[in-house]
Amino acid sequence: MGEEDYYLELCERPVQFEKANPVNCVFFDEANKQVFAVRSGGATGVVVKGPEDRSPISFRMEDKGEVKCIKFSLENKILAVQRTSKTVDFSNFIPDSSQLEYTQECKTKNANILGFCWTSSTEIVFITDQGIEFYQVSPEKRSLKLLKSQNINVNWYMYCPESTVILLSTTVLGNVLQPFHFRAGTMSKLPKFEIELPAAPKSTKVNLSERDIAMATIYAQLYVLFLRHHSRTSNSTGAEVVLYHLPREGACKKMHILKLNRTGKFALNVVDNLVVVHHQDTETSVIFDIKLRGESDGTVTFHHPVLPARSIQPYQIPVAGPAPVTSQSPVPCKLYSSSWIVFQPDIIISASQGYLWNLQVKLQPIVNLLPDKGRLMDFLLQRKECKMVILSVCSQMLTESDRATLPVIATVFDKLNHEYKKYLDAEQSYTMAVETGQSRSSPLLKRPVRTQAVVDQSDMYTHVLSVFTEKKEMPHKFVISVLMEYIRSLNQFQIAVQHYLHELVIKTLVQHNLFYMLHQFLQYHVLSDSKPLACLLLSLESFYPPAHQLSLDMLKRLSTANDEIVEVLLSKHQVLAALRFIRGIGGHDNISARKFLDAAKQTEDKMLFYTIFRFFEQRNQRLRGNPSFTPGLLSLELGADTMNPLSHFIGQDREKLREEVRKTCRPASPLVRRPPCRWTGQG
């Protein structure tokens, strides 16, 4: 198989540490994601490495016996080491602080410490076989203070650092789980719940094993995952993973069942909100997405693998050593090895090889493995690094070889715009809250995060639609249908369509001489009115003369483009039409006389010039009681006589022209006497 067939891979830069051997013991801290390599009990050195650590931490400890557990507090300020079943030793790693160790013994008599968990930089929990003890560490005083304790018989425990929840296994069968939540010096006891064990003969004793339980955060919710090796239903013999939702408040509920349809040895990871189930016997893995639609019986949703089972992509281990040796070919890594240890959410450790990897999901291969475009889009929209893959899917379904049907394309557009609309609404709600001052009264209010699932109009225009319209081999009807389908989807979700999408439609129509369709789109308002669109229509007048009137009609409908309408009419030498429009909207008292007289002058129509001049004379008379123009108001370019610009055209024949006007016109200018007309765009 090629790389395009693998949808899981190990990270390129793993954490490398000294292999486990009789002298070197390896420990993993699930909270800090650090690997501890402890040589000779720490006497010959301790090396701490993690994926986020820029440089390893190295130090030595006095060998006081076998190390059972070793962990740093959050921020690596205090080191805790358990060497016996009764005590935990502490050392400060704070600058200018005492390096002397101090010890804390568990408070419960006859109890044995099973382990410990740091819940903050100065708070730690001891888990014993008889309960838990919650302490606050004071590094300055080199002492611990017991904050709270709880007595309960404990078989084993599990810790989820992301949610600071500790899960305790209780009762003889171990299937009653008691969760505790820790936060800011407080310990809260959550409702206990019971894990349903698989049916077994009475002679067989079935206990809940720690290996079959995992805790992980999936889609911001805490789940307990139970690997049930035998289904409780008689018609299914395969294993399954049961997901119990563990809320902060309320009882734990069984929500999902993942059907594996096989038996054997399994391991679980959670990567990018996907449950990954590894199967050692076949050396393959499958992924489940609980957000995708499954089969429900009313209380529990059953899920099947999203994709066919595939192996993790083969990994090559570089050969370490001197330069001549390292030139050798890398050694293939043994995948699904029995020495692999899996930690949540996405950690795989090979102690025998000395590597810690983060498991990763590759999205691009999934595009070809999931043919249902609607389901594929549902899957991709939930992933972190999804935008470019989504855009590539949109481009792919618009190619000649993989062309999708219009209903499928419409489904994809609707799913994208649904996410887009959710983000726009959240952004609008946040903005309103800030403007009204609600953000101060509600400190939990946060600006919505623009995830990669938000594919906006500019993304679609730049990466998909503009490229798509340039393909010569595509039938123009299909091209226009796709563009209109995207605009239809935006309108359906009440998202304002950006003008560049309308421009793309118009350019495509003009390119194929589909002017009748353009006229219909504009007439029935399929394309939304905007100033940029009106300007584009004006530029098309030479190809399609009615575009001029369509542009004017659009500007009139906008009600905010009166100045633009006047400029368009004046540029076409329709001075009277411009003046009638201004009168129709009641703005004739504020317009510039110079602009209209200059436009009339450029027409070289003496009668028109005189009509415009008389209009402004009468306006002056009405507003100021004097028909004369204010000195300096009119440009000298209109004539030497700034008080009477008629001199530019008629000079000594002024009276003759006025006589001609009286013969051909009514006593007053028709323009002045005419009542305001409704706007039609006619000159």
UniProtKB/TrEMBL annotation:
Residues annotated as domain Regulator of MON1-CCZ1 complex N-terminal: 26-144
Mic1 domain residues: 383-631
Superkingdom of source: Eukaryota
Name used for this protein in its record: Regulator of MON1-CCZ1 complex isoform X2
Organism, scientific name: Erinaceus europaeus
